[in-house]
Amino acid sequence: MKKLLLSNFKSNKSIQEANNWLDTFLEKISLLNTSNVEIAVAPSFLSLEEFSQKIAAASVPLQLTTQNISAYPAGSYTGAISVKNLEGLNLQYAIVGHSERRKYFGETSKSVAKKVEQAVDGEMTPVVCLDIEYLEEQIAAIDVKLLEKCIFAYEPLSAIGSGKNADVGTVKKVSQKIKTLAGEVRFLYGGSVTAENVLEYLLVCDGVLVGSFSLDPNQFAQLVTTVATNS
Ligand code: PGA
Question: What is the pTM of this model?
């Protein structure tokens, strides 16, 4: 299976800055053979429509991803973005349960499990973020029939945005633990991934989630090039 390289903008960038990112990134990778990697990008909700149109018009395969979705379907849930709201945008993935959502927005393993259901209903693959502290509880909360539809991302809190990427041996052990609990699922690592360290992780993971390093389109293109030309 192709390695998944997923860029998460988080709450960074205006709509214009995000568009500039996309233009630069598409140009940078236009001459690269990316047939052996899967590239995905998660801008803010406000950029999804324009990204969707630009990606459809470009010849480069880039999977559009949402950083979050509502735990509820369409209905009276003021301020929430449901999978219904996202219909027609050609979203491939939905990141759910990021530790920043747990920390700042009070998300729980139960609400994340509901988001997994919503993502699957909306024909998106949930990318479920986990840290050791709540890994077992979160996997146990997910409907067992949906586990095989999920991708799990190990994102240790100490590694996120800190420049202190996790030890590869530990990541490998966590991968084994997740596979024992959830079956033969796709497994990603996230936390201070860069073009310099990405290949180490890909020896033990099916892909990476990249925050800070991917905010610069040139850097993310460099990471993609490193993987595309070395795997
Ligand atoms: P980082 O973020 O690459 O900035 O550490 C990773 C993430 O939170 O997914």
Answer: 0.97
Best probe residue, ligand 1, of 6, 8, 103, 127 (max atoms within 8 Å of C-beta):
8
Q: Where are the beta strands (DSSP E) in the chain?
A: 3-8, 37-42, 63-66, 91-96, 125-130, 151-154, 186-190, 207-210
Instruction: Map residue 25 onto helix, strand or coil.
Output: helix
pLDDT the model gives residue 106: 94
Neighbours of 153 (CB within 10 A): 29
Map out the domains of the chain with their CATH numbers.
3-228 (3.20.20.70)
CB of 207 shorter than 6 A to ligand 1 = no
DSSP, collapsed to helix, strand or coil, labels residue 51 as: helix
Question: Other C-beta atoms within 10 Å of 163: how many?
Answer: 10
Q: Are 178 and 139 in contact (CB under 8 A)?
A: yes
What is the mean pLDDT, run by run of 10 residues, along the chain of 231 residues? 97 98 94 92 98 89 96 98 97 97 95 98 97 94 97 96 95 96 96 97 98 98 96 77
